[in-house]
Amino acid sequence: MQAAISLQNLTVSYRRHPALHHINGSFARGSLTAVIGPNGAGKSTLLKSILGLVRCNDGQVVTHADVGRIAYLPQQAEIDRSFPITVQDCVMLGYWSRVGLWGGIDAGMVQRAQQALAAVGLEGFAGRPIASLSVGQFQRVLFARILLQDAQVILLDEPFAAIDTRTTSDLLRIIQSWHAEQRTVIAVLHDYEQVRRAFPQSLLLARNVVAWGDTGEVLCDENLQRARAMAEAVDEHAPVCAVGESA
Ligand SMILES: Nc1ncnc2c1ncn2[C@@H]1O[C@H](COP(=O)(O)OP(=O)(O)OP(=O)(O)O)[C@@H](O)[C@H]1O
Q: pTM value?
């Protein structure tokens, strides 16, 4: 299958300690992959490397031709919600990469933003300040923004953290619809049962790749134990990597 994104010997270090260590593999076009692993395994760093937000100390991320835009949902904790904008304006930031600072927003775009809000179950919320929303409502807003971005590759960092069951299943349906549209979706997740149910592919990380492939095969006891053991070893004896550093 054709690759959307390839990782070639990808190594990223913070203060000379590798968070990702010689990662090799590809995300196939149209694949739906869960990135899983213990805390500190390098999952968020992987998404940031794909986006170019952290520097690769060795190796590279190759985004294959005509993949186009990449949409990104960061962890909510990384977003400042005190910024005084409305739900509609926040959603319309999804147009940013296309219209830029001086581009115009036409009536059709406003209508599509309203449709995106309806699709995530937030009809009637357009004029609300984002600071007034619950965590789950705000996550729906961020999904609506991704709908407008119309990206071929979508990266989601813990999309269901602190989100209730109903919102989770609504947002999972949207992820499934992206998958049905042949978009490439990569999501950092912690709930292994949910991964088993809804994500055909998994990448199990513990700084290195522990396993990458069909979820049923990746999520076996042996691999999970190996990931835990590797993560524990990192805490106590993290080797200093010879390559440079990212932050
Ligand atoms: N900006 C940074 N500066 C220094 N170290 C960092 C930075 N960001 C991440 N790290 C370290 O890199 C390692 C991997 O972090 P990362 O956030 O990628 O892990 P994760 O798998 O997403 O963890 P979690 O499941 O806890 O969110 C951790 O040891 C973390 O402390």
A: 0.92
